[in-house]
Amino acid sequence: MLRKLNIEIPLLQAIKNIPKLNKLIKMLCLKILGRKKQYPKTIKVDGKLVDLLAGKLFLPKYKNPGSPVISVSIGNKDIHNVLVDLGAVINVMIVNTLKTLPLTCIQPTNTILKMADQPITKLGVIEDVAVMVESWEYLVDFLIMQPK
């Protein structure tokens, strides 16, 4: 009759109220935490790495790829040599570029952008501009700036 009896209680309550379970949980936790990693005693090293560490081999020096630039399309206007910064959090467009595009809905913004080398006058934000890069279309928000 007791074999078919099931009791559902929260785990924390079971740990507090059942001493054997409390000891078992503590023992398991201590075993897991106390386990140390065993590192191999010998490490095999490839011949090129040995030469590199000994100063006999030098890695090839690559040329600076320069600034990553691409061509994009906004509307039916192609813009070449657009600087790409994949680590940038904001997308900036200057007023001269904006004047050549069929975009007019500039919204005011409270965003403040401080540049290290020159003061910048912000004009606003244009949201959801469809930018084509090759065959891919992205919706991009631009902060419109006027450099001095």
Question: Can you walk through the features of this model?
Answer:
- This protein is α+β, with helices and mostly antiparallel strands and 148 residues long.
- It has a domain at 69-147: Cathepsin D, subunit A, domain 1 (Beta Barrel), CATH 2.40.70.
- The protein is 24% helix and 28% strand.
- Strands 2-1-4-5-3 form a five-stranded mixed beta sheet.
- A hairpin with a 2-residue loop joins strand 1 and strand 2 (77-83).
- Helix 1 (11-17) packs across helix 2.
- The chain is flat, with a radius of gyration of 32 Å.
- This is Aspartic peptidase DDI1-type domain-containing protein.
Distance between the termini: 88 Å
Low-confidence stretches: none
> What structural category do the secondary elements indicate?
alpha+beta
Q: What is the CATH C level class of one domain, in words?
A: Mainly Beta
Number of helices: 4
Strand content bin: 25-35%
User: What best-fitting shape do the alpha-carbon axes yield?
Assistant: flat
If strands are numbered along the chain, what order do they take across the biggest sheet?
Answer: 2-1-4-5-3
- Work out the radius of gyration: 32 Å
Protein name: Aspartic peptidase DDI1-type domain-containing protein
Index terms:
148 residues; alpha+beta; Cathepsin D, subunit A, domain 1; five-stranded mixed β-sheet; 4 helices; 5 strands; 24% helix; 28% strand; Aspartic peptidase DDI1-type domain-containing protein; Peptidase_aspartic_dom_sf
The gist of it:
It contains four helices and five strands. The chain has 148 residues and is of the alpha+beta class.
